[in-house]
Amino acid sequence: MFKKLLKEIREHPFVYFLLSLILIGAFFVRLWRLDTILGFYFDQGRDAKVIWDLWYSAKPFLVGPVTGLEGVFLGPAFYYLIAPFYLIGAGNPVYPAVFIGTLSSLGVFFVYLVGFKAHSRETGIIAACIFTFSYFIVLYGRWLANPAPILFISPLLYFSLLKIANKEGEMWWVVTAFLIVLSLQFEMASAFFYIPAFLVFMLWTGKPNNKTLLTMFFVFFITFIPQIIFNFKHDNILVSALKNALNDRKEINLSLWEFIKFRFDFYYKALTSIIFPQKQNILKVFLLASIGIYIAKAKSLLRSKFVITFLIFLISPIIGLLFFRANEAKVYDYYLIGYFVPFIILFSAALSYLAKNWFGAIFLAIFFIIFFQTNMPMINNYLQKGVAPFTFKDQINAVNWVLDDAGDNSFSVDVWVPPVIPHAYDYLFMWLGGDKKSVRDAGVIYTLYEEPGNLYPEQNAWLSQKNEEGKIMKEMRFGGITVQERIRTR
């Protein structure tokens, strides 16, 4: 196999030179300045506290993060995936973030393989380039949250599906089943629609033999054992919560057709923004050109196994989310994170035809000029400033200032953040403080809050209450974070 790989590289040196540059770029934009601008907020603090309890209080877990459906938890795979890196980093969140960024960077290589397997090397290079330098995919790839590993798993999944479609071995059925149930552990809203798509795909390709089916069922079942145990230990809590969430179909102030239009606007924006987060009118030109190529090449393209496979998986969430009314029918872009790969590959396959003549090559060059002009300034701005009014470094500096200012004296800390529960700061004080603990009703109070306060009347009410409790002696600002030392007056 190694000889075959070397032969492939020798025969197409320019392709693999470009791929090498793309991979270097992928690692750079996903890992650079993670220690400074890491997004460490509500979810990250909550997850870190759970993992801290695993290592330092010997509290294992059977479930992972909560989903958007109240009381419905994911499996524990994400926590166990990042837990070793919290241990290696002695609690530093940057270590698991680097691991997540590395995974998403490696996903770029598999995107190339999917494009190559599906259509051509040119398709693979175009898709890998889009996947690497898409502003929103870069953000998701640096996100220390449970959906992020999908950017690594989904290219593997679609590669496995192509292996099945091409009848390259029964083992790929088992691999695909495992990747689907693993995806369900990371982002249920996205991976849930893999299941009906996979069933349709199975009808199209023909089912595997009975031994393989039994193995697939075993893989599916064993992955859910932790959640099954948790469910029965807590009086059927997960099943009951899922039933309640799905039965909670609140009325929406839209007609049927308005709701369908609303959903399709969401699909269009969520998928196209990974290519052009801005300049939507220009993007329509390239989308129409791509559709034109599929029409012109209908005999060869529309009957291709990769086109049918990817359309089956793209159509599944498009139809399925039309019936999703739980959680007040709210949907978010990352619900489609598992479908970025087929969309990009289908788009890239059409673009690859443009390189076959000089006019098409110019058109393709124009696309990439506009693509980079749109995405790279946004990526650069993010890498310089992050997305919040403060950075992870600001958070660290704010917490360390409190700890240093307090010294060996007893103190209490009160934090206000927009999600109300300050999981992130609870964790940072626990990690950085060591033996220093906040003491209730201590004479010195440190108040910490994030800007902007004028958007949250609750914050102003909280500050008024703190002003009654204590007099401000010192005040420091770290980016958009304000820290105050107060002497208790009552």
What does this molecule look like?
This protein has helices spanning 2-11, 13-31, 34-37, 42-56, 77-88, 94-118, 121-133, 135-141, 150-165, 171-186, 188-191, 194-205, 210-223, 225-233, 237-247, 256-272, 280-296, 298-301, 305-320, 340-354, 358-385, 392-406, 423-433, 457-469; strands spanning 412-416, 444-450, 470-478, 481-488. The chain has 490 residues and is mainly α. It has a 4-stranded mixed beta sheet with strand order 1-2-4-3, with helices on both faces. A hairpin with a 2-residue loop joins strand 3 (470-478) and strand 4. The longest helix is centred in the C-terminal third of the chain and has 28 residues, at 358-385. The protein is globular.
Condensed summary:
This protein has helices at 2-11, 13-31, 34-37, 42-56, 77-88, 94-118, 121-133, 135-141, 150-165, 171-186, 188-191, 194-205, 210-223, 225-233, 237-247, 256-272, 280-296, 298-301, 305-320, 340-354, 358-385, 392-406, 423-433, 457-469, and strands at residues 412-416, 444-450, 470-478, 481-488. 66% of the residues lie in helices and 6% in strands.
